[in-house]
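Hi W.,

Here's what went into the run:
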Amino acid sequence: KNQVEQSPQSLIILEGKNCTLQCNYTVSPFSNLRWYKQDTGRGPVSLTIMTFSENTKSNGRYTATLDADTKQSSLHITASQLSDSASYICVVSGILTGGGNKLTFGTGTQLKVEL
Amino acid sequence: NAGVTQTPKFQVLKTGQSMTLQCAQDMNHEYMSWYRQDPGMGLRLIHYSVGAGITDQGEVPNGYNVSRSTTEDFPLRLLSAAPSQTSVYFCASSPTNRGTGELFFGEGSRLTVL
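Here's what came out:
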């Protein structure tokens, strides 16, 4: 069964500190992995996409990594800001027989950045 | 740039009532979908559509109906609301259901069934 597990469930850090969120998956065959940011009361917004051949990708203070061999991804946030407080959702896309893709969602990591 | 628009944002229903959640997108996306989000669970797919006139069931379709008469609109109907349908509902669209598949989400509709 395709699964996506995220850790930790929740995290509190001080403003300016760095943090790393983890995503482990069992989805196969693999197409891509996305990290979404969901602010409270809003819909998720894509931060970055990782395909099979990519190891690292940055989007400002966000850096995602992918190890397709161990089926693990991480999202590293540098110099955190209060606006980084949100839920971060890992979504893995698997390839369907006949084409198209099927998404498997993680339950998210709730990050709170405090002064 | 409107993107994906959902209405209403909040709704309270009594058990047995019916209602429709509206979703419209202005990006000419082929793919549209409805998800529900419950505490401690990942987003779960209710129904989806890969184009006008084509709909299919997702992971949790029972109690919901959809139709896709135009590319822009994808309403979700609750036939006879139950307390188990209390949730936050998200509509999402994507340029295609093949390839990279980035989803563009609406702001969500919070539904409470009493």
